[in-house]
Amino acid sequence: MARHLANPLVPDVAEVGAELVDIFVSGVFFSHMTITLGRVTLGFLVAFAVSLALGIVMGRNRYARQFFEPAILIGLTVPGLVWALLCVIWFGISLTTSTLAVALSLSPPLALSIAQGIKTVNADLQEITAVYRLSILSRLRFLLLPTLTPFLLNGIRIGLSMGWKVIVLVEIFGLSSGVGYRLNAEYSAMNVAGVLAWTIGFAGVMALLEYGVIGGIERYVTRWRRVATV
Fold it and tell me: Which sequence ranges are marked TM in the entry (predicted)?
């Protein structure tokens, strides 16, 4: 179709492939992708710490759940573009901006998943931990985390799908590095093939993280579960 149109705005597969090979061979893709991954990781760590504490409190305390749940539900409906814009306005162009933008987009689904997971913790096991006076860290390690694992992974998947979009938007708005910056540079140069090449590369890394890393972790931590056979 691109060949028949002969339009510079509709590049053919060969052009996109050449751009893709170029950014990979030159190493520019990996350098900017590493920066973007670092920003997402930092935002994720902040979101995880806040969401874990908030989710546990909400799951164990009815009043805390009633207080925080409306704000979390509102946070789930806020588009990533809004978080990116607000953080750029409030904090300017800095590492704080990207970290908080990602954390704000990740925290609502993660906290909600953790709160739902806490409700499923076996009451008898909770009584046993109380009888043996296990420490908070021991309860977290041996009771809560094993129960919360599926909910955590689900929250991480949903949150990261939003976090990637937010970090790219923040980078487009003014950062001088990262995948979003490169997409903005290719757009400014009207290089559609370059935009598509960076998009394909970025999507490939996301798929690798989803099915390779997160999927691998899920298979490892749930390996003890029995699989029903027909």
Answer: 40-59, 71-93, 142-160, 166-183, 195-214
Answer yes or no: is 216 within a domain. yes
- Show the domain range for 47: 2-221
Question: DSSP class of residue 87?
Answer: H
Give start and end residues of each alpha helix (H) in the chain: 2-5, 13-25, 28-60, 62-77, 80-91, 95-119, 123-131, 136-139, 145-172, 179-188, 192-207, 215-221
Q: Is residue 230 part of a domain?
A: no
Separation CA 104–CA 46 (nearest Å)? 9
Domain count within the chain: 1
Residue reference for tokens 């874990």: 52
Is 88 part of a structural domain of the chain? Answer: yes
**pLDDT tens-place string over residues 115-151:** 888 878 777 777 777 776 777 777 777 777 777 777 7
